[in-house]
Amino acid sequence: MKKKSLTFEDAVKKIPGLEKSFCSELLALKRIHRKMIICSRPGIVSGSIDLDSSLERKFPDACRWDYGIGVNLRGNPERIDWIEIHSANSDHNISEMFKKVEWLIGWINEYARVLLFFQSRRFVWIASGSISFQAGSPQRRRIAQKGLIFSGRKYLIDS
Q1: What pTM does this model have?
Q2: What is the chain's Cα-based Rg?
């Protein structure tokens, strides 16, 4: 009998403070933010969490990350797309995003180690308004070097 692999939903339900945070598809995202996500095929999203709202009480002063999305990859364990919707109109926003991704990685390592099972993950920055740094700019290179995917105002979830 083949052993069932850990799903994003299973993992989320094991994390203190997130036990009731999992929602199907993109339902954990605020409605306005759902419009910024495009799915390449039906059923690609297994579920989502609103990390920011779920952890606000426990970490009120932290640079919390917005969302986590479970992505169904054909024949492979799920991928987690970590989505942050944030201003992108100044170099200061880049520094803020670096703090946010560092907080997220630290939080996973300290409080949510079960998420380390998912070797495939993406850290995605979706612009919430105007964008001051263009493709090929030094700012975009810095963002990429930090491991962030800057998607502009929309993000395509693909496999």
Answers
A1: 0.94
A2: 15
Give the pLDDT score at 159.
81
Average pLDDT of span 48-69: 97
Would you mind telling me the total number of residues written for the chain in this entry? 159
Greatest CA span in the chain, whole angstroms? Answer: 54
Taking the C-alpha atoms of residue 129 and residue 85, their distance in angstroms, rounded to an integer, is 9
Which uninterrupted H or E stretch holds 78?
strand 76-88
- Cα 24 to its chain centre, rounded Å, is 15
112 secondary structure, DSSP code: -
Task: Quote the CA–CA distance of 16 and 112 in Å, as a whole number.
Answer: 8
Residue reference for tokens 């059923």: 43
Q: Round to whole Å and give the CA distance between 66 and 33.
A: 10
**Local structure of 29: helix, strand or coil:** coil
List beta partners, residue 159.
Answer: none
